[in-house]
Structures are given as C-alpha cells and as structure tokens.
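Below is a filled-in request sheet from our internal design queue. Each sheet records the structural input a requester submitted and the sequence that came back. We keep these sheets so that new team members can see what a complete request looks like end to end.

REQUESTER: design group, bay 2
PRIORITY: normal
MODE: inverse folding
CHAIN LENGTH: 509
BACKBONE (tokenized):
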C-alpha cells in the first residue's frame, strides 16, 4: 500500500519535492535553487530547461532519502509560480527563449496599448483581472513578437505555451514523446486569457492580447489524473494534482469554506479569501479560481497580491549589507523600540494590490538624524504588515461577514516580531499551522484526493493543526494613526516613473 503523496513545488527561486505521509508529516524533502537572470532593469528571466533538470533532481533526491520505491508513492501533485510564462518547440522540447518571470515588467508599454481608452479593466468582467505586466498573457505576446519567426510557428501549432505547471507536466509525462499539454483552472485564471464562468479560453482576450489558440494547453480541474510519471525513480505513478502556488497554500491551509483566508509571506505576499461558488469582484483585488476538485463546481477566491515583502529583506541583505542573512532582520529590528517615524514602501517595480500602479517606486520616508539601520529594518518588516492591512480592508469592503482570523504561512512567519505586528495592525488573530509547507501540502492534498489517498475535504480539515497564535494587543487609536502615516508614505511613492521620464537625461545625449 502506498505510504506517501509527493508534491513538486516549483517556486521563484528554487524547486523542491516533498513526500507527505497520511497524517501530513514530511517524510523527505529535496530542494535546489536555480539562476535568477536579469538582462535589463525590470527584466526577470528563468532558464526553463534548468528548472526541469532541478525538478528531476529533487524528485529522485527525496525518494532516495526516504528509501521510497515506485509503489510507495500514491500520486504526485504540482504547484508553481503562477504567471511565469514559457514557450517551447513541441518537436524538440526546447524553449524558444528564457521563461519570463511574474515579476518582469518589460510588457509595460504593451499593457498600456492594450488598455487604450477603455482602461486596464476592459477584460476584468470576464477574466477577473486588470491588464498588468504581472500576468502571463502579455508575456506570451511579447515572446511571439520578439523571437524571430515565433508568431507564425505558434499559429501553425508548432509551439506550446505554459506556465510552469504546464511545462513540468509536459516533461514529467513524456515531453516530446507524448507529454500531456494541460494546465488547471487556477493557473489558467492568472493568464488574462480565461473566462472565469466558462472555465475556457476567452476568444476576445486572445484576440486583443495576440495569443494564438493553437499555442494554449487544455484547461482541466485541479484534482484529477492527468497522466503517468515517466523517467524518474518514482516509476509510473499518476500526476494527479495541479494548483498555482497561492491557491495551493489556501487549499493546504484547509480554507474550504467561504470567508476563510490565508496570507503567504514569501518574495511577495499573497492574501487569498475563499468566496465559495460565487464570483466576487472588488476594487483593487483580483478574482481567480481557488480550486476545482474533479467534476465539482469550481470555488473562487479574492486575492490581494503584494509584489515585495520578503524581497525587501533580501534587499537589506544584498544591496545595503545591513544584515548578513535574512534571519538577522528580526534581531536588528528589535534593537529599536519602534520605527522612529520611518516608513518604507518597497515599490521596487510598482505596487500591486490594491493600488495597481506600475508608476510607483520604492521610498523611505520620515528619515531624521536619529534614524539608523534598526529603524529601516523595522520599517521593512512593518511594510509587509501594512500592505497586508490594505488588502484586508479591500476584502472587508465586499465581504458578507468581517474577516475574523488570518492563517499564515511562508518563510517570514518565523519572524515573531512581524507576526505580532501583523495581528496588531489587522486587529484579528494570526495563526500559523504545524505544517508550514502549506503550498506543497495543498498540491499533495489535491493529488491525494484524486486517487483516494485521502477521502474528502473534511478528512483534510481534520489533519490541519494549529502551531502558534498571535492575538492583537495594539491600541486601536494608535493602529489607525500609524496606518494613516503609512498611507501618506504610499502616496509619495506614486507617479515616480512618469516624473523620471519627463526629466532630461544628464550629460551628453
């Protein structure tokens, strides 16, 4: 009898494979980083072939560590960085260009052209999304227009597009020798190309953005058998679950009922709230598919995507050199009693939810001669919490009932100072689960349900366990006073790129 379900978790900076037992314990894990490629300012790329190599390595590595053979793994699920786009040759299996990562902003001019006089929300009624550099549809169009001959080859059916789940599924199930070209509803809902109600590719969106239908994968549910794994130590086991990383975390946090939500703290942060079978739209938030289990009706979610949270800590480490490791930021922030009046808006490549301003850039305001590295470190952590507060306010504006608690996951939840401040500024309890790898766990849940490893969503809910809870203890008046100062700081970050373009270039032309 199979002992494990595996989850292939393909993230922005690394790929890992985790084996979970029936009680959601981690039996083994292997993880490998991949190169971050930055050809120009604002451009972010990944080598998709390298990511596929890392995927094979981590699967074989975790299986070896667990001493697991083919019969020990019931199924494998995939979760992935969602909006990153790769286009490859169906015959050779080779990408035509590096993958364009979700953080990349090279399509800003194209997005403005697509918005035209109708504005960025012209596709929102059908797709749930505003036109933005964030989503993969414009990235695909850019690739077709900038790789010689690509558009014609795409229209002839010679090329294939996918987000990272599709690329991995195709390779895992045989690649050019019969690989399955499919995606699930959660990833498809992040392309700007899918009709939220019909769960099918939206032809007017394809026409507007310039993506040929022949390029696209089949859209399937988040929990079903897509095909058999081939060419790894796991043997021929079913690949049976796919969820975009943030929906996977929602699922792994057992947020199955309308109104339940989670926040994942990683490179960016992503707050999702389950809205059940209702498609809910809200100013400043994204509407996506939360998940679909087999033939059941889809469940939807409201999402607030924050571009920079953990990345601000990395910036303190890699660019300013005020810390040697990300873990040191809490100690540095605790070296001062408060932020000293310093606010840090880390809009390195614009602001995502709820502002959606590509013209914003990062600012540190409130500096005096008194301010030091500790105040800046504390302001960087507090920025994560304040951005989450902005998103939660937008959720509460359309929610049928106020938000009562927030389940959290991701690397930054180990920062006790941040988690307490998050509870303080939200005014609700913040709860961390025992199993912190909720993204991978959600993919494992989806795969396990498809093959009967777990019986039902109620079975999964019973296996979720609370590890730590932070209760709010900040005075309400202070909370609102500091929130008002944060919003002032945000205002100062807006419009910077427009002003920069109007300024004459220094020196000779």
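RETURNED SEQUENCE:
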């Amino acid at each position: 009898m199979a002992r494990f379900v595996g989850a292939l978790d393909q993230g922005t900076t690394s790929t890992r494979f985790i084996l979970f037992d029936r009680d959601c314990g981690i039996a083994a894990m292997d993880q490998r980083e991949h190169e971050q490629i930055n050809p120009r300012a604002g451009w972010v790329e990944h080598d998709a072939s390298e990511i596929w190599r890392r995927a094979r390595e981590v699967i074989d590595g975790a299986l070896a560590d667990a001493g697991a053979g083919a019969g020990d793994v019931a199924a494998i699920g995939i979760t992935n960085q969602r909006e990153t786009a790769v286009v490859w040759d169906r015959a050779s299996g080779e990408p035509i260009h590096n993958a364009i990562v979700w953080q990349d902003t090279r399509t800003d001019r194209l997005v403005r052209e697509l918005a035209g006089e109708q504005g960025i929300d012209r596709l929102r009624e059908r797709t749930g999304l505003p036109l933005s550099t964030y989503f993969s549809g414009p990235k695909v169009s850019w690739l077709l227009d900038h790789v010689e001959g690509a558009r014609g080859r795409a229209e002839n059916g010679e090329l294939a597009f996918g987000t990272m789940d599709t690329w991995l599924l195709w390779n895992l199930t045989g690649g050019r020798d019969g690989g399955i070209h499919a995606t699930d509803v959660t990833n498809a809902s992040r392309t700007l190309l899918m009709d939220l109600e019909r769960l099918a590719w939206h032809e007017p969106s394809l026409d507007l953005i310039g993506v040929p239908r022949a390029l696209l994968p089949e859209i399937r549910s988040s929990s079903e058998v897509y095909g058999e794994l081939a060419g790894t130590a796991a043997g021929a086991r079913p690949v049976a679950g796919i969820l975009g990383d943030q929906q996977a975390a929602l699922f792994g946090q057992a947020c199955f009922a309308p109104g339940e939500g989670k926040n994942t703290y990683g490179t960016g942060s992503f707050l999702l709230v389950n809205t059940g079978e209702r498609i809910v739209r809200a100013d400043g938030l994204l509407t996506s598919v939360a998940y679909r289990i087999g033939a059941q009706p889809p469940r939807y979610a409201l999402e607030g995507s924050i571009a920079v949270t953990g990345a601000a800590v990395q910036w303190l480490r890699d660019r300013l050199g005020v810390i040697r490791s990300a873990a040191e930021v809490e100690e540095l922030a605790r070296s001062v009693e408060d932020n000293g009046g310093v606010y840090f808006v880390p809009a390195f490549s614009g602001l995502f939810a709820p502002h959606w301003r590509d013209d914003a850039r990062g600012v540190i305001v409130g500096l005096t001669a008194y301010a030091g590295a500790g105040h800046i470190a504390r302001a960087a952590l507090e920025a994560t919490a304040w951005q989450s507060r902005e998103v939660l306010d937008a959720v509460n504006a359309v929610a049928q009932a106020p938000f009562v608690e927030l389940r959290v996951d991701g690397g930054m939840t180990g920062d006790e100072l941040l988690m307490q401040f998050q509870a303080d500024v939200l005014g609700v309890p913040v709860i961390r689960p025992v199993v912190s790898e909720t993204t991978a766990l959600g993919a494992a849940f989806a795969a396990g349900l498809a093959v009967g490893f777990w019986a039902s969503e109620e079975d999964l809910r019973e296996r979720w366990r609370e590890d730590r809870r932070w209760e709010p203890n900040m005075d309400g008046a202070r909370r609102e006073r500091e929130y008002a100062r944060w919003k002032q700081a945000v205002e100062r970050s807006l419009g910077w790129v427009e002003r920069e373009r109007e300024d004459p270039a220094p020196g000779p032309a």
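SHEET NOTES:
- DSSP finds 17 helices and 23 strands in the chain.
- Residues 499-509 have pLDDT under 50 and may be disordered.
FILED BY: M.R.
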